[in-house]
Write a structure and sequence with these properties.
alpha+beta, Alpha-Beta Plaits, 2 domains, four-stranded antiparallel β-sheet, 4 strands, 13% strand
C-alpha cells in the first residue's frame, strides 16, 4: 500500500489507461457490429439491384424509350377505338314530357304489330313493345329521355325480327331501369358503356333465326351484344320410318298398239316396237321432309343494347 501511496501518479495513469482501453474495446466492438450489419444490408441491396439489372425492363434509356413508344401506340389504339364507336354514342339524351313518351310508345307498338302481321307472324295479346307497365300509367318525367332511347333500340330489333318472318313472337322482357325505381345510374370510373338488357323468345323456321341474328350483328344506330342463346326444336323425337309417306305411281294408260291382247310380231317388227314407258311418280318431297325435318325451332335470346358513354380523356 505504501508503494501505491508513493506512486499515485503512476497508479492513476495506469488506471486511466486501463479504463480507456476498456472503453475503446467496447466502442470498437459495437462499431464492428454496426459495420457488419451495414455490410449485410449493402450486400442484400447490391444483390437485389443485380437481379433487377437482369430483367427485361430494367430502367435504362433504351427501355424507357421503348416503353414510351408502346404507351403512345396504346393511346392511339384507344383513341381510334373510341372514335369508331361515335355512331353508337348518342350526342345527348334529353327528357320529353310523359305524354309525348306515351305517344311514341303507342306509335312504336302499332308499327311493330303491323310488321309482324304483314309477315304472317303472331304477337302476344298483352304485347306493348316491352313497356307494358305504361299502358295505363305515365312514365316518370326524369326517366323519359333514357326510356325513349331504349324504345328506339327495341323497335329497331323487333322490326328486324319481323323481316326474318318468324312464326310468332312469344315473349319480350325488358327489366326495369334503376331510374324507374327512383334510383340513379352511376357508371364506374372505367365504364365505357351502359347495357340495356333484353330477353326475346320467338318461334319460327331455322331460316328466320339465321336472318335475325345476321341482322343484329350488323348494327346501324344501336350496338347489340348477344349474351346467351338457346335454340330448341318443337319436335323432341327424331323422324321414324313409319312417318314416311310414299307416293303411288300413276297407272299408265294402254296405247292404241297395246289394244290387241294376244297379237304377234312379224320378223323385224320387234326393233320398231315402241318401248313401254316407265310409270311416272309425282315428286312431292314428303319423303325428303321426313329426313331433313320441317319442324320449327323456339329461340330464347338474352342480349344487351349498349349505350356508349362519353369518350374518356386519356392521361
Amino acid at each position: 500500500m505504501s508503494w501505491i501511496k508513493d506512486n499515485k501518479f503512476i497508479v492513476a495513469l495506469g488506471g486511466g489507461t486501463f479504463a480507456g482501453a476498456l472503453l475503446l474495446f467496447f466502442v470498437g466492438f459495437q462499431g464492428a457490429g454496426r459495420y457488419a450489419q451495414a455490410q449485410e444490408k449493402f450486400q442484400a441491396a447490391a444483390d437485389e439491384a443485380a437481379g433487377f439489372e437482369k430483367l427485361a425492363l430494367y430502367p435504362q434509356a433504351a427501355n424507357r424509350d421503348a416503353k414510351r413508344k408502346a404507351l403512345e401506340g396504346y393511346r392511339q389504339s384507344v383513341e381510334s377505338l373510341q372514335a369508331a364507336f361515335v355512331p353508337f354514342r348518342p350526342k345527348e339524351i334529353t327528357n320529353i314530357t310523359p305524354q309525348e313518351f306515351t305517344t311514341r310508345v303507342l306509335a312504336a307498338n302499332t308499327e311493330v304489330r303491323k310488321a309482324f302481321e304483314d309477315a304472317g307472324a303472331t304477337v302476344p295479346e298483352a304485347f306493348f313493345v316491352g313497356f307494358e307497365g305504361y299502358k295505363t300509367a305515365l312514365a316518370p318525367a326524369k326517366t323519359t329521355g333514357v326510356l325513349d332511347y331504349q324504345l328506339a333500340s327495341i323497335k329497331s330489333l323487333l322490326l328486324e325480327l319481323a323481316k326474318a318472318k318468324p312464326a310468332g313472337l312469344k315473349n319480350l322482357h325488358r327489366p326495369a331501369l334503376p331510374e324507374e325505381e327512383g334510383k340513379e345510374f352511376t357508371p364506374s370510373a372505367i365504364a365505357a358503356t351502359r347495357p340495356f338488357p333484353l330477353e326475346i323468345t320467338f318461334v319460327g323456321p331455322e331460316k328466320s333465326v339465321r336472318e335475325f341474328l345476321s341482322s343484329i350483328t350488323k348494327p346501324e344506330n344501336h350496338f347489340v351484344v348477344i349474351r346467351s342463346l338457346r335454340v330448341t326444336s318443337e319436335k323432341k323425337d327424331p323422324p321414324r320410318t313409319a312417318d314416311a309417306k310414299f307416293d303411288k305411281p300413276a297407272a299408265s294408260k294402254p296405247s292404241a298398239e297395246d289394244a290387241f291382247g294376244g297379237g304377234f310380231l312379224l320378223p323385224g317388227d320387234d326393233a320398231a316396237a315402241p318401248a313401254a314407258e316407265a310409270p311416272k311418280t309425282a315428286d312431292s318431297s314428303r319423303i325428303l321432309a321426313q329426313v331433313l325435318g320441317d319442324e320449327q325451332v323456339q329461340v330464347f335470346l338474352r342480349l344487351d343494347v349498349l349505350q356508349f358513354l362519353p369518350a374518356k380523356k386519356l392521361p
